[in-house]
Amino acid sequence: MGQRIHFVVDPQGWCCMGLIIFIWLYNTIFIPKVILFPHYEEGNISVVAVLCYYFCSLFCIASLFKASVADPGKLPENPKIPVTEQEYWELCNKCNMMRPKRSHHCSRCGHCVRRMDHHCPWINNCVGEDNHWLFLQLCFYAQILSSYTLILDFCHYYYFLPLKKENW
Questions:
Q1: Which entry of 120, 126, 139, 155 is annotated as an active-site residue?
Q2: Residue 65's closest CA among 106, 113, 7, 111?
Q3: Where are the domains of the chain?
Q4: 120: helix, coil or strand?
């Protein structure tokens, strides 16, 4: 897996990432303030639930940044093609470079990517051979955080609020 930092200059990708960071900040500040902390003070939620929410949030934003700046498998300018593998390489008609057969040219990034899946505007990067696992981690942590937030919202409106009204 490549360790080079990769940055794409794409205004649409910047808008999508900005929207994601805004939603993440909103959920990291608003959900604990409205749901977690008041119910923690009442004794309905344990400190473990609060810490788990913040760990999920931290893992989600860390995986977003890792997937965003990781090199997706960009092909070098002058690749050294082994003699035994020359039949498996082809010429890209957009950038006029030799590339392996399963590589694709990304029109947003302007280069060929090994085993390119797609260009994801939400991470402002291509999903390719070297960052595919990071993209899957991001999807997993986003799913965990979204599910946890949904469960907290459900508990807040259908369990904690009626419980508070009965005790009132």
A1: 120
A2: 7
A3: 11-72+121-159
A4: strand
Residue 74, both tokens: 């960009």
Q: Output phi, psi for 68, to 5 deg.
A: -75, -35
| DSSP states along 32-84 | IIIIIHHHHHHTSS-HHHHHHHHHHHHHHHHHHHHHHHB---BPPSS----GG
pTM of the predicted model, to two decimals? 0.78
The pLDDT value recorded for residue 2 is 46
Annotated catalytic residue 120? yes
The answer to whether 96 touches 81, Cβ cutoff 8 Å, is: no
DSSP 98: E
CA–centroid distance for 44 within its chain: 32
**What is the tens place of the pLDDT at every residue in 128-161?**
998 899 999 999 998 998 898 888 888 777 776 6
Region 91-105: mean pLDDT is 84
Angle (CA) 110-113-117 rounded to 5° is 110
Cβ-contact 130, 11 below 8 angstroms: no
